[in-house]
């Protein structure tokens, strides 16, 4: 796939998908590391390996199956990415966010992002679910932004605002749902920070992030949210806390990707239920073909 992607490229992929499935999704879900089971809840599935989809990048990370799944969650049509693309895999940021613009052209109005993340907040426990309130996009602040390059007004404005992008109403609905599901004790709300990865943080870096007010850190999500916001989508995000980030020189523990995937399994059912119920309460009308 070439580095500069133009409107026609997104359009070609979207047209191909529309010709292969009857589903017309209004909601897109991006599954984080080890969270691909979110797609298992979809009924009447049509699924496509990324390798079969014209123009789609390929997943290379363990815990990211590389499949696009269309289907219904409680009667609401969704499309779900079982596997996302990360900058550290060597993709340009416009490639990592390619699916988001394709979703826009499919008619998607709401993007749900999920990720595995390490916690900086002292009060968080492994297994907590953090409703994302805001993000710090470190690569973005350093000039690595998926919106770099000529702006395509068909998608959105040159200078999009990024305040209040994690939808307040959806966050409130999610909180209320967690109460009624009896899982409030492990629900948090906080700030997600994207770092470039692929290495986990050094102790000095962890301390820096902690001082900056970061609650959870990961290596994804922010570029997808930037692109979704640019093209006018509503955004909701969840981080599953898979590890505590090591902040002390006395700490002998260290994190690894296998441990991240293990914890993802632990909370998979709760996450699936939360996302399903949230989608079912969304005010969206299903289109049919
Ligand atoms: O953000 P997701 O895709 O959930 O993955 C997270 O898990 C991996 C590290 O274990 C990194 O890719 C990090 O970003």
TrEMBL record:
Out of the domains of life, which is the source?
Eukaryota
Checking CDD domains in the record gives: PNP-EcPNPII_like
Give the enzyme's EC designation: 2.4.2.1
What's its top-level EC category?
transferase
Tell me the GO molecular function terms: purine-nucleoside phosphorylase activity
All copies of domain Nucleoside phosphorylase, residue ranges: 26-279
Q: Which reaction does it catalyse?
A: 2'-deoxyinosine + phosphate = 2-deoxy-alpha-D-ribose 1-phosphate + hypoxanthine; 2'-deoxyguanosine + phosphate = 2-deoxy-alpha-D-ribose 1-phosphate + guanine; guanosine + phosphate = alpha-D-ribose 1-phosphate + guanine; inosine + phosphate = alpha-D-ribose 1-phosphate + hypoxanthine
Keywords from UniProt, A to Z, are: Glycosyltransferase, Purine salvage, Transferase
Identify one Gene Ontology CC term for this UniProt entry.
cytoplasm
What the entry lists under Pfam families is as follows: PNP_UDP_1
Question: Alphabetically, which GO biological process terms does the record hold?
Answer: purine ribonucleoside salvage
- Binding annotation for a purine D-ribonucleoside: 201, 243
> Quick one: which pathway?
Purine metabolism; purine nucleoside salvage
Q: Which residues bind phosphate?
A: 33, 64, 84-86, 116, 220
InterPro entries this protein is in?
Answer: Nucleoside_phosphorylase_d, Nucleoside_phosphorylase_sf, Pur_Nuc_Pase_Ino/Guo-sp, Purine_phosphorylase, Purine_phosphorylase-2_CS
Return the similarity comment. Belongs to the PNP/MTAP phosphorylase family.
**How does this polypeptide assemble, per the annotation?**
Homotrimer.
Q: Function, please?
A: Catalyzes the phosphorolytic breakdown of the N-glycosidic bond in the beta-(deoxy)ribonucleoside molecules, with the formation of the corresponding free purine bases and pentose-1-phosphate. Preferentially acts on 6-oxopurine nucleosides including inosine and guanosine. The purine nucleoside phosphorylases catalyze the phosphorolytic breakdown of the N-glycosidic bond in the beta-(deoxy)ribonucleoside molecules, with the formation of the corresponding free purine bases and pentose-1-phosphate.
What is the protein name stated in its UniProt record? Purine nucleoside phosphorylase
The encoding gene? LOC115208022
């Amino acid at each position: 796939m070439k580095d500069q992607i133009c409107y026609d490229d997104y359009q070609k992929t979207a047209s191909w998908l529309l010709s292969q499935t009857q589903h017309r999704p209004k909601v897109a879900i991006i599954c984080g590391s080890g969270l691909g089971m979110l797609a298992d809840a979809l009924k009447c599935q049509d699924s496509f390996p990324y390798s079969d989809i014209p123009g789609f990048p390929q997943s290379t990370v363990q815990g990211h199956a590389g499949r696009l799944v269309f289907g219904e969650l409680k009667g609401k049509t969704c499309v779900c990415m079982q596997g996302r693309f990360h900058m550290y895999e060597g993709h340009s940021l416009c490639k990592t966010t390619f699916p988001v613009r394709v979703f826009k052209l499919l008619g998607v109005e709401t993007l749900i992002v999920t990720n595995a993340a390490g916690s900086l907040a002292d009060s968080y426990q492994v297994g907590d679910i953090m409703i994302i309130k805001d993000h710090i996009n470190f690569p973005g602040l350093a000039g690595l932004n998926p919106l770099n390059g000529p702006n395509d007004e068909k998608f959105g404005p040159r200078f999009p605002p990024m305040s209040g992008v994690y939808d307040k109403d959806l966050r409130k609905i999610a909180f209320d749902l967690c109460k009624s599901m009896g899982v409030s004790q492990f629900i948090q709300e906080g700030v997600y920070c994207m770092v470039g990865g692929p290495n986990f943080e050094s102790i000095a870096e962890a301390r820096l992030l902690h001082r900056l007010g970061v609650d959870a850190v990961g290596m994804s999500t922010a570029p997808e949210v930037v692109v979704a916001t640019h093209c006018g989508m509503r955004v909701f995000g969840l981080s599953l806390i898979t590890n505590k980030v090591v902040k002390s020189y006395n700490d002998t523990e260290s994190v690894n990707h296998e441990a991240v995937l293990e914890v993802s399994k632990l909370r998979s059912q709760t996450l699936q239920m939360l996302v399903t119920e949230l989608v079912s309460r969304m005010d969206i009308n299903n289109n049919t073909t």
